[in-house]
Amino acid sequence: MKTTYIVRAYRTAVGKAPRGLFRFKRPDELAAETIEHMMSTLDDFDVNVIDDVLIGNAMPEAEQGLNMARLISLMGLKTIEVPGVTVNRYCASGIETIAMGMPKSSREWQSVSSLVVLKA
Prior knowledge:
Layout: H1 27-41, E1 50-56, H2 68-77, E2 84-87, H3 93-105, E3 112-115
Parallel strand pairs: 1-2, 1-3
Helix pairs in contact: 1-2
């Protein structure tokens, strides 16, 4: 089993829902911008070695789509090669996603996993 590392951890800003700074920003856009920022801080990191994007999101609907992780992968990583998995657990979606992602990323057949946890 490989050793798993958390290379970067970021959190999006928080605002008031009806009138706040992000009232015109969709959740998938915020998450994609977070991934873009993360990738910009990793010098010479090849996006093609990322195997998966995992998102924990309770009740993805409307503009979030049914597979929000795939949308975020497309927008944030700027490639069609990286799939995405959206975990819909009505409570503790984020921690469930971490629980699913850590063993997956430590397998010998997996090169690198991008684990992004979003609770929307």
